[in-house]
Each structure stands twice: as structure tokens, then as C-alpha cells.
Amino acid sequence: xxxxxxxxxxEWVKRQGLLAGIALLFAATLAWLGAFGSSEFEPxxxxxxxxxxxxxxxxxxxxxMPLLRVWPLLSARTMGQRVAIGAAITSVPMFFVxxxxxxxxxxxxxxxxxxxxxxxxxWIIGGAYLFLWEKLSSRPxxxxxxxxxxxxxxxxxxxxxxxxxxxxxxLNRLPPELGREIICLGNEDHYVRVHxxxxxxxxxxxxxxxxxxxxAIDGQRVHRSWWVSxxxxxxLERFGRTARLELRNGLSVPVSRPYLDQAKSLWGPxxxxxxx
Length: 276
Fold this sequence. Notes:
The protein is an alpha+beta fold. Helix content is 53%, strand content 17%. It is built from eight helices and nine strands.
């Protein structure tokens, strides 16, 4: 456990170093371009100006974005929604940071037109950086492999991971109150929404790993973002050139054309439904 915590900490430090480096790259690029009126600054003042802004933006992202993933009211939202909310939250302290940095070089005055331009700049720049921050930081950490062990050689020879450990990983992350009867899986950004006979929850893992976790269950992938248990389907319906599965928990799951023949073999011919 201690070795795992050490490895996890090392991976976290590496990832944060990458995100801080991206912030500095943003700063260097905008300083070079003289973006948002900073071309009027002296070269060293311009570099310092953007470095202060993006280091502040990075620090706010470290605090804000992880909270948006775990806060119950926001954790189920998409990445785009989290970025938009994060940009709105961080824009308040960033306004004061940017105002102080702008006034320190003696070229900014707090008049309405200047304030409006500053707010727009904060939203554009902050939103772009937070998008990259969330995209990179929310990826699941790869499983640690000890060098020189039989496991490391097996991984080199065969990239696929045994389904038993992955199945345990998926089931162990399910809240006990949701039971163990998995109805279907839906991919949402870096998360997988697991629907059971009782309810549903979001789990941070790759969809490919989640599919491995249900390999022992009789079911079928029906879409690039959906897997469905065979026993969960009430009927297969055809809407023109598209098809959907009606599930016993009330969900309607799309069936894409590459998986349609397999769906028909499992759940019979599709019932045609008139399209208004």
C-alpha cells in the first residue's frame, strides 16, 4: 500500500509538472504575440505579466477543477460544463490578479470599456487553459507495473489485461446500495456511467476497461458509447435508418449500424416505429 501511494504521488507530481509547464507555455506564447494589448509592455514586463497570470490560473485550477468532479451537484456534468463552471468561478479571483498585474505596468485604468475587455480576455484565456487542464488531469492513472516481474513481461507480450482483475475493479467501485446487477454502461468523457437494477453512478475509468469488467456478463456492445446486458432489453425498435433498445429500467439506448446485426441476433428483428 505504501509503495502504491508513493507511485500515485509520483504520477500526480509528474502530471502537475506537465500542467504547470503548459501554463508557462501559454504565458510565453501570449507574451511573444503581445496578445490583448500587452505588446505595449516592455519585453521583460510582458513575460512577467503573463507568467504571473498563468501561474495564478494554474493554482486556481488545482483547487477548483478536482472539487467540481467530486462535488455531488456537479460531478455528473460533462467536461465542457465543468470547464464552463470552472471558468466562471476562477474568473472572479483572476479579475483581481489580472487587474493588479495590469496596473503594475502602469498602462491600465479601471474604466468600463477597459473592464469589459479584461473580463472577455479572462474568459477566453482561462477557458482555453482550463479545457486543457481538465482534459489532461482527469485521465485515469495507468496501473503500476514493477519492472523485472513476470507481469511486466506479460504486459509487453500481450497488451490486453485479464478480465478478472478489471471485473473486480469495476464491481468494487460500485456503491453497495446499487447492488451488482449491471443493466448497461454508458461512456461520458473520462467516466463510465454504470446502470444497475437499482440506480446508476459515475466511475472514473476507461470505457475499454469497463467493457472488460462486464466480459463475464451475457451482453453486447451496441454503440461506441454503450454496452447493454442481454436480459435488460425489452425490445429492439427501428426508427427509419436508426435503431434503439428499450430497457426494463426505462432507458432508451441507441444502436449504431455496425452493431445492428449483432443486436438483431440477440434480441430478434427490430420493431418498426413510425417517425413523425
